[in-house]
Design goal:
Strand order of the largest sheet: 2-1-3
Helix content: over 70%
Order of helices and strands: HEHHEHHHEHHHHH
Oligomer: single chain
Number of helices: 11
Structural class: mainly alpha
């Protein structure tokens, strides 16, 4: 009872006490503000066009109405949303002097970013399972990866991410924040928020550590197990042509997984000290801003059907322009 009263008091203090956050971002490098703005604007434009374009292409081409592209369309949606939660505020802070964000705005950014990063983690795991079934059990592929199963896997990814995000946010809200808080990052992420808290963040830190470790390990186990079986199956194939085709179907997904999980594991390994904050910011930029741009490029550049659909769209547009 006393704990719940204390929590209520802290929440009232946070909301009524005029708590604001200042996202420092890259403000310690004033000469790089404009170049960074132009670079991130370009990246965000490519991200929006690439991911929304990928969704449209998948909807338009009947050849792409398969489980793999069903997952990819949701991955593109998640990447678009994730980038949109983070990048516009980053761009704004690079061109204005006032880098403040309200308490509610900061918590909402944290909540939504958690949803999309956890969803992406398990969406990539679901795609690994899809490739495992396609390579190791091709005759059962249409039965095992039915529309119902695919929808269930996608729905489970979204549902679990919302549950995780609610838990993280609820425990974050038990902390006290006083007055103006300077966040040494460009985004409202957990480590930076607890660093400016007025109260003991131990429980909140442990909750997010356990949950994040569980999410990372469980998804990696699914991915690694799937690819171990894929590798064994491919190596048993008699023809080199068959092996090449099997590996090529997995290459794009394996590239996306390596970049995504590699960046997250790198952030796990970086020590939480003042000297490592720049490294943390750069790595955070990579997985919040750059990866959402890379995914549609990785999948489109290696896919014949996607490239053909893009060519048809460009040809159709040129034809209508001539008319």
């Amino acid at each position: 009872m006393n704990h719940s009263r204390a929590t209520l008091f802290r929440n009232q203090e946070n909301h009524s006490g005029g708590v604001t956050f200042v996202l420092l971002g890259f403000s310690e490098y004033p000469k790089t503000q404009l170049p960074l703005f132009l670079v991130f604007l370009f990246i965000y434009t490519v991200t929006v066009l690439g991911n929304l374009g990928m969704i449209v292409i998948i909807k338009m081409n009947p050849k792409l109405h398969t489980p793999m592209y069903f997952f990819l369309s949701h991955l593109s949606f998640v990447d678009f949303c994730y980038s949109t939660v983070v990048t516009p505020k980053l761009l704004e802070n690079l061109v204005v002097e006032d880098r403040t964000i309200s308490f509610t705005g900061c918590i909402m950014q944290f909540f939504l970013a958690c949803i999309f990063v956890v969803t992406e983690t398990f969406m990539l795991a679901a795609m690994a399972y899809d490739r495992f079934v396609a390579v190791c059990n091709p005759l059962l592929y249409t039965v095992v990866m039915s529309q119902k199963i695919c929808s269930l896997l996608v729905g489970a990814s979204y549902s679990w991410s919302i549950v995780c995000s609610l838990i993280f946010t609820c425990f974050l809200l038990t902390l006290s924040f006083c007055g103006t808080n300077f966040i040494n990052n460009f985004v409202c992420e957990h480590a930076a928020l607890v660093a400016v808290s007025c109260s003991d963040p131990y429980i909140s830190q442990q909750i997010i550590l356990v949950s994040a470790t569980f999410n990372e390990l469980s998804s990696l186990i699914i991915v690694l197990t799937s690819y171990v079986f894929i590798f064994i199956t491919v190596m048993k194939m008699p023809s080199t042509g068959g092996r090449r085709k099997a590996f090529s179907t997995c290459a794009s997904h394996l590239t996306a997984i390596t970049i995504f999980h590699g960046t997250i594991l790198f952030l796990y390994c970086v020590p939480n000290s003042k000297s490592s904050w720049l490294m943390v910011k750069v790595a955070s930029i990579f997985y919040t801003v750059v990866i959402p741009m890379l995914n549609p490029l990785i999948y489109s550049l290696r896919n014949k059907d996607v490239k053909e659909t893009v060519k048809k769209l460009i040809a159709a547009r040129l034809f209508f322009n001539k008319m």
